[in-house]
Amino acid sequence: MSNLTLSDLPPLAQYTLKHRPPLLPPISDKTLTLILPIVAYWILSLFFHFIDIHDYLPQYRLHTPAEVLKRNRASPRDVVRDVIVQQIIQTGVGYLLNMFDPDAYYGDEMYHTTVWAQRIRLVQRAIPRILALVGIDGVQLAGKLHSYPQLAGAISGGHYLSLWDNIRLETGQEVLVPAFAGWEIIVAKALYWFIVPAAQFAVAIFVVDTWQYFLHRAMHMNQWLYRTFHSRHHRLYVPYAFGALYNHPFEGLLLDTIGAAVAYKIAGLSIRQGICFFTGSTFKTVDDHCGYALPWDPLQMLTSNNAAYHDIHHQSWGIKTNFSQPFFTFWDRLLGTAWSGGDVSARYERTRMAAEQKMDLSTAVSASTIPESPDDSSSQIDSRENDSDTPRVGVEAQLNIPPGKATEQARDSMIQVLQDKENGGASVLAQEAVEEKEAQTSLKRNAKKTVSSASQAGSLRSLSDRVQGSLHGRAGAMIGLESSH
Questions:
Q1: 146 contacts: CB under 8 Å, gap ≥ 6
Q2: Closest alpha carbon to 181 in 155, 198, 158, 201
Q3: Which residues of 250-280 are buried (b: 16+ CB within 10 A; e: fewer)?
Q4: CA–CA dist 332, 321 (Å, integer)
Q5: What is the mean pLDDT of each run of 10 residues along the chain (485 residues)?
Q6: What is each CA distance from 32 to 277, 278, 292, 368, in whole angstroms?
Q7: Axis-axis angle for helices 271-288, 196-221 (nearest 10)
Q8: How far is it, in rounded angstroms, from Cα 43 to Cα 39?
């Protein structure tokens, strides 16, 4: 039996190319790549904002409305303005990218299927040699399998005795040529329509995750980069959905826009694949900042890099951890930058209580004609804002964390916040130190009351279940600050 040559291969399918009609006429697919991510951003953001303002799902909140008001250092108006600026830049870069993308055509799908089928036929050449390595004669074995002609053809090296087609040449002459086996076409279609596109998306996700992890980490490790660019995003200590792209314009360009464009090009995505990739990335970014641990959210179920995971990165004690975004956490795990301090639910509960108490105090003061007492906690915070000892006390005394790596992570994170003078980092830590002390005192006082203690424990367990359901269910004991006891 002679070896196959290229001339022994079945011929490729002929085709005629036609311009691919747009998905949403009269908007071209290229224009849709620019519009749809922005539309997706605001639709999903407004969905979560609607839930926020009507308080429809309070049981799944990571933070209370009081925390949003009292802890964040950027107004919603500033956030919306900067997001719109970034989306204008994003659209401009996308327009330039589209100029170098070829127009989309269709009609060659069967041609590409037969290209893959030819590759499958060529791979079969190696089967007799592989069998020979274990002492099996592939040709003889194929002869014994004459009742299974396609299996026999594959074992013999891709020589199918019964598969031939008549084709007409341009001269009008009909010739007999080899034909593809049915299984070859089925596998080729699976490769062309499903496996290769899935691999392209996997490459794009890997590239964008890698790009954003290392640049994001650099923004935290280099103080000039952090103060000049990235600290703006961290004015939101309590993230919310439409603040997902609240960045310095240069950071937004480098980290998000160019990162996605590089991933798109390296993965070789088509225009319509790009629509899915850019829009999906946008949904994921918004969802990661939504502030809800939703058990039925598919984006939070598919990956451990979810809202609860990223929320830790926005806290003063976790700002130098959990750098991975937007899809998976493998770089954090491989390079040891995932938060490793235990269960964060107790810490979150005390922060929640402190914000509620401060909101109640502000409401009482605003409703009274009596000036605020200089002895209240707010005045204490202001008076100590420039006291270098206060933030240091916050670092050492505010957190009851297990010794070791988690302690170092928390300290490094709080030092970075402290050094961010432009955004009042010292005031943030001083305020948190006071709130932590007040919350601890309140918890001890309530613990003496049996009924209140039971109610509080139930609330804490509920919060713990939500946070751990989003985090621990997929990443073990990766996330957290305090042990449950």
A1: 152
A2: 158
A3: ebbbbbbbbbbbebbeebebbbbbbbbbbbb
A4: 8
A5: 58 92 94 97 96 92 85 92 96 94 93 96 93 89 86 90 82 85 96 97 97 96 94 93 95 95 96 96 96 91 90 90 93 93 73 67 59 42 40 44 62 71 68 62 58 50 53 41 38
A6: 12, 11, 29, 54
A7: 40
A8: 6
